[in-house]
Amino acid sequence: MNQPRTKRGEQTKAKLLAAAEAVFAEQGYQAASISRITERARVAQGTFYLYFSSKLDLFEQLVDDLNRRVRKAMSDGAARGANRAEAEREGFREFFAFTAEHPALYRVVREAEYVSPGAMRRHYERIVEGYRDGLTRARAAGEIGDVDPEVAAWALMGVGEMIGMRYVLWPTGDDGAFGSGATPVPDDVFDEMVAFVQRALGTAASTAAAATGQDPTTQHSTSQHSTTERATAHVKEDS
Amino acid sequence: MNQPRTKRGEQTKAKLLAAAEAVFAEQGYQAASISRITERARVAQGTFYLYFSSKLDLFEQLVDDLNRRVRKAMSDGAARGANRAEAEREGFREFFAFTAEHPALYRVVREAEYVSPGAMRRHYERIVEGYRDGLTRARAAGEIGDVDPEVAAWALMGVGEMIGMRYVLWPTGDDGAFGSGATPVPDDVFDEMVAFVQRALGTAASTAAAATGQDPTTQHSTSQHSTTERATAHVKEDS
Amino acid sequence: MNQPRTKRGEQTKAKLLAAAEAVFAEQGYQAASISRITERARVAQGTFYLYFSSKLDLFEQLVDDLNRRVRKAMSDGAARGANRAEAEREGFREFFAFTAEHPALYRVVREAEYVSPGAMRRHYERIVEGYRDGLTRARAAGEIGDVDPEVAAWALMGVGEMIGMRYVLWPTGDDGAFGSGATPVPDDVFDEMVAFVQRALGTAASTAAAATGQDPTTQHSTSQHSTTERATAHVKEDS
Amino acid sequence: MNQPRTKRGEQTKAKLLAAAEAVFAEQGYQAASISRITERARVAQGTFYLYFSSKLDLFEQLVDDLNRRVRKAMSDGAARGANRAEAEREGFREFFAFTAEHPALYRVVREAEYVSPGAMRRHYERIVEGYRDGLTRARAAGEIGDVDPEVAAWALMGVGEMIGMRYVLWPTGDDGAFGSGATPVPDDVFDEMVAFVQRALGTAASTAAAATGQDPTTQHSTSQHSTTERATAHVKEDS
DNA sequence: AATGAATGAGAGTTCATTCAT
DNA sequence: TATGAATGAACTCTCATTCAT
Description:
Four copies of one chain form a homotetramer. By secondary structure, chain A is mostly helical. Chain A has two domains: 1-53, Orthogonal Bundle (Arc Repressor Mutant, subunit A), CATH 1.10.10.60; 55-172 and 179-204, Tetracycline Repressor, domain 2 (Orthogonal Bundle), CATH 1.10.357. Chain A is built from eleven helices and no strands. Chain A is elongated, with a radius of gyration of 20 Å. Chains A and B meet through helix 1, helix 6, helix 7, helix 8 and helix 9 of A and helix 1, helix 6, helix 7, helix 8 and helix 9 of B. The structure holds a DNA duplex.
């Protein structure tokens, strides 16, 4: 409920947040009990209420915190790109990396509609806001086609969320249970998805690459699978 | 637990499923209690266990049932389209209509990760399967670009889900609560989204329209924003 | 929460009410826990909430029920009196008898200010109403002096409550703990109190006795139940 | 736990007692938490246990303190009276004034049966002791009738408590909640109550007045009901 | 087929109290 | 003297599920 006023208190609150993230990721918000969280944090149950007024309060603090961090990661990634196309690619790369490292955010937000609609909307809207502003600037700069930034931003959000869910969070097995080691998106899927998005937006490099016949997939460094070259080459041929 | 053996039993089970859908839509799966469902169905609590072995069983039956119906609606919509582009458009139209009419499906599936991962994956995979098969055929027929049908199908699923969430289910106000009357997607947003998808897929008509610069928005009446003019250029030619 | 719909349910609710009265009498409302009540009633904790929506609901039902019964007892007692003075005496006699038998009412009502102010006021006001109506009629009939029925009724209520607390409920010892066997008011105290009240009201017999210098307290023996016949026998002689 | 040894300590303890009185008055003993009390006193929770060994200890210290002060107020009031009748009247006046100013005492004592029966009995017995001694002396002096001082003292206590509760503490509205501004007893009710008591005791002036039939109510202004005329007949003669 | 009473584990939360600083 | 973090037992209440009728 109150902010910690001593170092010890700060540490305790941090322990609780970390434990909560872990427990939420494992069991989800509803199934996670305060007692399991405090147990994992190795504090007494009563201690929880020193720093959070309720389970919901914890939830909202955690979502807001993770949301801030995922947006930071995404914009840092985008900033790393030398051009619009690279910025898009790197933003998504960071998004998936964050998802792999913090599955709690992802899962808990999807569960949040009935828990805290406000927190859920805030989460999506803030990410979309980032997309939208980037798209608006890019359109003004002629780097992308004449898309509606708002609608496109929501569409991008959807693509990222669904691809993330399918390829980052789902276990490879077919048993429907969650494996412990969430894997990042495979390179070929990632490239395919980026190409999908860039065609949808009419991103310049993509178009240019299509025009020049260059294979734009060479521009990224960390590709691990050889199957991705073909990913967006077709665009030119199609047009 | 068993299938009803009499007409009366069938009606009772149907009442329970309808009540469950309504209660789930209002409160979500976790918050919905058997007693609230039986109350709404106007049967005694014990009656519930005549037809469902557990709350989870009900959940899975309901999700599977709604999934079957939404896929039917989508494929009926797509079949109505005279060409590929129209099929895409009409499929989405039905998807959003179904979402507006059955918010329970939507909301409950998002909550389902920790309730029944199997049911959740099955739901998405079945829809994606439909997309994928359609895309595979369309690509073979040269109606769309050279996209990976699997990845593109997941991306489409993501776009549909997110646009549906944002524009069909969220109330217009900013209060974060859910209004009672879910509204279908506004026309201009719908057009913009369809155009986004068609550019991403390289749907034939779309590309052609983009090339000729024609404005085909006259085909539907209620478009409101100027950003949509180019979105569906192909339709005219198609018609 | 709901009324029982079967015989078994009725019995269970009755068991709960009886157990609650006993536990409230022993420990008071605040200290009594639902689990102690259900334990005493030999039902599961959850059963409690079949018939009461909360601890407070139980409290209010119990207070209202006991209030109804104490007023019945008092008015039955008063009706037994052959004249005004006897009616007063017998009403008080029943009040103390009820207090001895149902200490829960007494104790719980005094605790109720912060629990359910409404229930507390209702309790007192209903009893006072009975007094007030009786006094109003008595004054009209010239059986008592010219007192304000409302204020006098509250004063009577106060006398009864305090004498009851002191002489019925308090243990004889000085240790401040509660004995198990609450004793009814000793005869001499009872007579003294009745005389006090009758002087205050100017009850006919009392005044007459005062005038003639007789000591009306001598008229009765120490018996409590069967000895009452003669209790107000003098009244007639006095008048 | 210990008595404060410094000026600062004394102030802190005083702050705690004042805060406790306020919180008890607002919420009652059971609902009042140490943390709310220390919060209101603007000290840390741990500080509480420097001066009180437990919540119960605080309770008993507070009750004893307030008891001392109410008895002082009452006996000061009584001493102001020029004769027996006036002493009675002024004692009650102070009692109600104290009740209005310190509702905590009143309310908390009624709640105390299960909290600290000892403190409760002590509270009542000390006040009754004062009444009893006064009545004993008055009877010896022939100022009142031949009443049993002990029983009459308890009856007076009851009258005072009930009238105080009804007319001082209860809000005028019918909503059953407590208003913030407790009002002292209205004049007419006060007069009526004093008359009731004086008739019960056979206070000299009262009897005399009754005999002469004089109306002495003109002495105070706000009398509202006609039923009070005869109530304080003696006063005139006394003045 | 249908009822509704009964269960009991487990949830979130509060609180008087202790203790290291 | 004063702080505030930490404790853990105990509380009220909910719920999916079982069972006798």
